[in-house]
Amino acid sequence: xxxxxxxxxxxxxxxxxxxxxxxxxxxxxxxxxxxxxxxxxxxxxxxxxxxxxxxxxxxxxxxxxxxxxxxxxxxxxxxxxxxxxxxxxxxxxxxxxxxxxxxxxxxxxxxxxxxxxxxxxxxxxxxxxxxxxxxxxxxxxxxxxxxxxxxxxxxxxxxxxxxxxxxxxxxxxxxxxxxxxxxxxxxxxxxxxxxxxxxxxxxxxxxxxxxxxxxxxxxxxxxxxxxxxxxxxxxxxxxxxxxxxxxxxxxxxxxxxxxxxxxxxxxxxxxxxxxxxxxxxxxxxxxxxxxxxxxxxxxxxxxxxxxxxxxxxxxxxxxxxxxxxxxxxxxxxxxxxxxxxxxxxxxxxxxxxxxxxxxxxxxxxxxxxxxxxxxxxxxxxxxxxxxxxxxxxxxxxxxxxxxxxxxxxxxxxxxxxxxxxxxxxxxxxxxxxxxxxxxxxxxxxxxxxxxxxxxxxxxxxxxxxxxxxxxxxxxxxxxxxxxxxxxxxxxxxxxxxxxxxxxxxxxxxxxxxxxxxxxxxxxxxxxxxxxxxxxxxxxxxxxxxxxxxxxxxxxxxxxxxxxxxxxxxxxxxxxxxxxxxxxxxxxxxxxxxxxxxxxxxxxxxxxxxxxxxxxxxxxxxxxxxxxxxxxxxxxxxxxxxxxxxxxxxxxxxxxxxxxxxxxxxxxxxxxxxxxxxxxxxxxxxxxxxxxxxxxxxxxxxxxxxxxxxxxxxxxxxxxxxxxxxxxxxxxxxxxxxxxxxxxxxxxxxxxxxxxxxxxxxxxxxxxxxxxxxxxxxxxxxxxxxxxxxxxxxxxxxxxxxxxxxxxxxxxxxxxxxxxxxxxxxxxxxxxxxxxxxxxxxxxxxxxxxxxxxxxxxxxxxxxxxxxxxxxxxxxxxxxxxxxxxxxxxxxxxxxxxxxxxxxxxxxxxxxxxxxxxxxxxxxxxxxxxxxxxxxxxxxxxxxxxxxxxxxxxxxxxxxxxxxxxxxxxxxxxxxxxxxxxxxxxxxxxxxxxxxxxxxxxxxxxxxxxxxxxxxxxxxxxxxxxxxxxxxxxxxxxxxxxxxxxxxxxxxxxxxxxxxxxxxxxxxxxxxxxxxxxxxxxxxxxxxxxxxxxxxxxxxxxxxxxxxxxxxxxxxxxxxxxxxxxxxxxxxxxxxxxxxxxxxxxxxxxxxxx
Amino acid sequence: xxxxxxxxxxxxxxxxxxxxxxxxxxxxxxxxxxxxxxxxxxxxxxxxxxxxxxxxxxxxxxxxxxxxxxxxxxxxxxxxxxxxxxxxxxxxxxxxxxxxxxxxxxxxxxxxxxxxxxxxxxxxxxxxxxxxxxxxxxxxxxxxxxxxxxxxxxxxxxxxxxxxxxxxxxxxxxxxxxxxxxxxxxxxxxxxxxxxxxxxxxxxxxxxxxxxxxxxxxxxxxxxxxxxxxxxxxxxxxxxxxxxxxxxxxxxxxxxxxxxxxxxxxxxxxxxxxxxxxxxxxxxxxxxxxxxxxxxxxxxxxxxxxxxxxxxxxxxxxxxxxxxxxxxxxxxxxxxxxxxxxxxxxxxxxxxxxxxxxxxxxxxxxxxxxxxxxxxxxxx
Lengths: 1153, 380
Fold this sequence. Notes:
Distance between the termini of chain A: 89 Å
Low-confidence stretches of chain A: 1-11, 14-20
Radius of gyration of chain A: 36 Å
Number of helices of chain A: 31
Number of helices of chain B: 8
CATH class of the largest domain in chain B: Alpha Beta
Helix content of chain A: 25-40%
CATH topology of the largest domain in chain B: Gyrase A, domain 2
Strand content of chain B: 25-35%
Number of strands of chain B: 16
Radius of gyration of chain B: 31 Å
CATH architecture of the largest domain in chain B: 2-Layer Sandwich
Shape of chain B: elongated
Number of strands of chain A: 55
Number of domains of chain A: 8
CATH superfamily of the largest domain in chain B: RNA polymerase, RBP11-like subunit
Oligomer: heterodimer
Number of domains of chain B: 2
Mean pLDDT of chain A: 85
Largest sheet of chain B: 6 strands, antiparallel
Distance between the termini of chain B: 73 Å
Largest interface: A-B, 43 and 50 residues
């Protein structure tokens, strides 16, 4: 910032005074640049971290669901059209559950603990007919429940909506939890944001063969189709699923009433180059001797796919109806007026031809502006619509069947036949499996929901911003994986996984907003009143007049405008004035000579400060009012100081990074540059000094770091929780850390790190740890595992029972931790093989009950559950919870807690993608110490730096060191140096010197072993270290002899089954090459599956051993004469027998050994 | 002119060189032997030359004579408070100074809470964490009065100190902090009754607790007027919400810092070598001012040498923290030299409170003595 440079004294002054910086810096008079940072916390305050999910769900619940019900509001009987049921209104109630007729309110925490679904009833008001035939009566009913809708946490339907911290605490909720997920059967589920190519837009690209094509994926409330127009061998064809083969486009145009070729040429544009390109197609059309609409339709009729069960009666209308309803379905055809469709096709053709003449006009599929993000609300509405329609169909069917019956016992009541369960069950099942199978919309997608990652707080938040890709991960393409320039500020450039999903799975940036649908009607009329000439009134010639632009709203051509820039400015002015939606984007595309107006949902956009001729609209007094609390972010929006721009409109804007950089033509100014990063990347201090993959690695690792999960972490019953005993907030923070509350729920500790080599146990990124630090609690963590038991009730009325443990006898020792109620009591130390629930199950669970009054003790068999944990470790029963599950069985959950101190092999990482395992643990007296008596907590090998180039880590160390010396948290926000959100190295060095350290952070250290000074100055200071969830205790595995697989008799596989360690093919090859035949023999047979077989020397088949005769007998030769005994791997014997079973005889030829 | 030029360039035969005085090292070697040179990029000559014949070729005997050591060895106490102590140890090898440091950290025994019997803990702090926190509380008790408890030992009044902690936060009252002053010494041993397997068999005998004290510790003369308690009263152990309660008994035993840092009697103990700041040239006027300004710890002073001229002097070399600001940039390292005296140690002991620092040091000396004794007996 200019101020800072002008006024170094002030700056230093502020630096020194430490924590006062906020008040003073903000109160200080600012000459020209305005500190806009305060906008971000304000923005996040109104928006939260997962506003996109909440907005989408709220839109669904408030608007979309009403539209769906309105569109399908009538159920009429086919038998008697007078019998009907009409939905009048729909609304979603409060989350509640009805148990035994009593409505009970639900809280999210209650649902989590007792495996319930956090759902609210869907109420409808209905009007319906009772009685039939003569005695009909119209009746109304209010608040009929048609199903239960799972509720997104913190949405407008959730009880947590708008609650303050204290109230949230009372509900057992963490105030920092972002919400945005559902609770289905006790598990938290997020619907991932789905990335898709935008609907209803013309996309020009090339197919595999390199042919230019224009494709439109049309999506309306009714149908979904894909229309492709492709140039093949200079001729232009239409590809549509409903036609058996490609169809010449000219014939299609003719079929739609464009009989004159001249009109077509005019519509495309009079440029001779275009006509030239069109000529082969016209010739083709003539060759087929199609001249009139009738001929064209007849031609198309031939090509129509025969439906398997087509009636054949309305055959002649098929082609026309396909053209009307399925071909470019997003263009409405009113009263068989095909003209808009023809114009649309002409525009498509024109753009294709442009692309053929000039490759630059090709659309980029990976361009973010061509993408839409599908959020939970949209996905749920699809699902709900399908379920609702199914339910209505079912209801109609039952009504019809009842009406066909001649005699009915009771008075007919239409309202009785709405089935409640189908919607409830359908929603719940889809959300819990994540498989969207909506046949009505041809949608079959898997893995749409995921269990919320609760490993760390940042992992949870990061999970909400995750965008799952449209492509399959297996495709080896580079285009969609590459970083798109249009991603700037919308999607995080760092946060993507490594490996197969690299670049496909993305994350939202900090300030990104995803739009929801907005009303089109008012926009259309507004456009017309602003001077858009209606399409209907234009001739083909006029369409592409020079100096006139087409106006396209959400893919629908409205008309043309002669002064596009003026029109766009007027629209923008209206948007800034709040007359049209703030998320409506107006984009003037000079190249395509179009004005695109978009109000559809799923566009990504972000707020920017508006500038007039390079002068920011936000002035000092605005920010002051914001600080004083007079203003909110919304008021900035309302007064037109800030606006949202989507990716397309950004192309019309000239955005200055800082106010100083603004020039005459600047239209917008960025709020803060660090907002281009997402939540996970925001934790990294000085990320702009790091090599970029390191930031990506940290984004992945930050989600595995242990720390605090939530304020209610000790009240949760998750299957696995990792917690740090003494988590700290990072000494070197960033603004993002404060904004996302990572400083309140940290996942790491500030360790004093010495960068030096020590002991040789630090090669390959291993770190050497100080034993005293570990003794004092560094890296100590708690692992909590859930174990549950169900006291099952069986069909014959019997049930499991939990009984008092026997205090004597041989099992008493294993039952020590049990209370008198047969359950392990909280606080007890539990060891492997201990019984934690003394349960017994009835032996007979089927059929009739033998005695009415309970079963005798002898009818039960013990079904105790024992704790299996790492041998030699002790854990503690943390909590025991009893609840009833959905089948009303008693469900008992135990949380088993294990506190661990770091050991050799545990994984640690700094915030710069520098992971390493603990290589050795060294006594404090052997550690080096500084002149001030400071002894590092861990030692890191300097070889970690040159190849990784994580300069940010070095600056973090310097900043941390300065921070502890002067007592002020230092900042390292991305790109923050110019705006003062990151401390400059120079300033840090000065602080260090003032506190008696070397400016470069290197200290004079003494060796703890020899006592002499080390022959180098050592770079030493605090770095925030994260303990990752990968711990040796969970991974170490070895076995001598152990369990074997039943079928092959070979050792089992995997640690969880106590399996063996495989001598694989490559190991085997080594042994063969070495000639260690006996070793192979031992490994592959003796230690695996040796088996003694009887082999007949004559027939070469396997025989058996007759224990009575004490000889081997060949079952084929029926004698025991030529039998030899030999050893074989059992798997080999099995193979022989399996081959025999499929009529292949393997024979063994034995020779004397 | 020409002759002078010739004189400069002409080679001097080796045998014409002046003799190195026998029995004395040349100054540069003497400097390397006795000082660590802290140059701008790295410290050099950090090692101690212990080999007696290292300078034999120059006729210098490098062996250490007991006589000399006795004459030269000095200990000067600079600062002594209840818990902290700073003293100079002059005329000794780094290895021995380091041995004291190592012994202080790892081998001096103290008492620390090792076993915690938790009767009730409804607080948010987990049992293990609570026990860990209790273990790290320094106790104000002389460990020399206690014995080590080996594996088979019964806890008795000679090897165990028992504390009780029973705090409850009443319902309706605000949250409370449990501080270390709540740890109450139980001189008569554990009060928790041990539930033995066959409790019915010998009901006549005294109810068994977790300790078997033969007499109360308060009756012992050492503790009668000096009750055992944590060193600090204000260490937060836990926080209790309304309705929460902690009831436990903590058993402290004797141990060494080697086993666990909680038994270390020092917060830390370290030494640094005496800084020596030498001005290689006269630094005057502006340069002097600049030098004085450069040093953040005010090592240099300005001296008036008359005629309005000023000269820099080294006033407080001891406070040098080796930030190397004074030798940074512009050939400053040709003007100022930072050195450390190899046989002068500024030793600092920060006691945790079990024993005063001076006692700690004497104890450390005793342990080193013991070790030497042991080596000698083993060797002979």
